[in-house]
Design goal:
By secondary structure, the chain is mainly alpha-helical. The chain has 10 helices and 2 strands. The chain has a two-stranded antiparallel sheet with strand order 1-2. It starts with a helix and ends in a 10-residue tail after the last helix.
Length: 223
């Protein structure tokens, strides 16, 4: 029972119909329910907290947080722990992000496109190469938000850490910066035109171009 206790607690959360922000039963009640020690419950709770599923508030108890956030954190750790090769990461992006752009072209609201435009303007105005990578990620996050799908947004968030190496300051240049801004503007234009096919093609071209600039030592293959 102890080895699978975190999973058992997750099933209880589902059975109770708890929503993000709801409080979990106290440790004593959980220990009695599952016939284990409070120490075992405490260790299971630590595991779930590390996964981003729950959070403890001093003096208040333990509460459920967004399961989507737990999903993105778990995926981010899996990608990082697997030591994904750069080529594999870009293949993953090519499999996902053109579809994200197409969906954004179908569903983006004026507030979404305004947020994208503002993020691109900030990227273009930034003169510090150390911050160019952060702006690039912020823009791709705005593309994801424009789909109106929280799972898509969390997926892009999960890719942030594994892709950080490809956006390192040492790989930046004024030419790359200018081309990145131009590529983002082309994607935005297709989204503004509500043209999913054009948005997907613009995103694909942007990712392929970015990949050609990355020349990093290959990492070990992952199992």
């Amino acid at each position: 029972m102890t080895a699978s206790l975190p999973s058992t607690i997750l099933r209880l959360i589902e059975d109770l119909g708890l929503a993000p922000g709801d409080q979990l039963p106290p440790e004593r009640e959980l220990a009695q329910r599952f016939r284990v020690s409070r120490g075992s419950i405490r260790e299971a709770m630590k595991t779930l907290a590390a996964q981003g599923v729950i959070a403890s508030r001093h003096g208040a108890g333990t509460f459920l947080v967004s399961p989507l956030r737990a999903f993105s954190q778990a995926l981010g750790r899996a990608l990082t722990d697997a030591r994904c090769r750069i080529d594999a990461l870009f293949e993953l992006r090519l499999a996902l992000e053109p579809g994200i752009a197409a969906l954004a072209a179908r569903k983006a609201t004026p507030s979404h496109t305004q947020a994208i435009a503002e993020a691109i303007a900030l990227q273009e105005a930034e003169t510090d190469p150390a911050r160019w990578g952060a702006y690039d990620h912020a823009i791709h996050t705005e593309f994801a938000r424009a789909t109106g799908n929280l799972l898509v947004e969390e997926l892009v968030t999960a890719l942030a850490a594994p892709l950080a190496e490809t956006r390192d300051e040492g790989l930046q240049s004024p030419e790359r910066h200018a081309a990145s801004v131009a590529g983002h503007r082309q994607i935005l234009e297709a989204i503004l035109a509500h043209d999913p096919a054009a948005a997907a093609l613009a995103m694909e071209a942007h990712i392929l171009w970015s990949h050609t600039l990355i020349q990093l030592p290959p990492k070990e293959e992952y199992s």
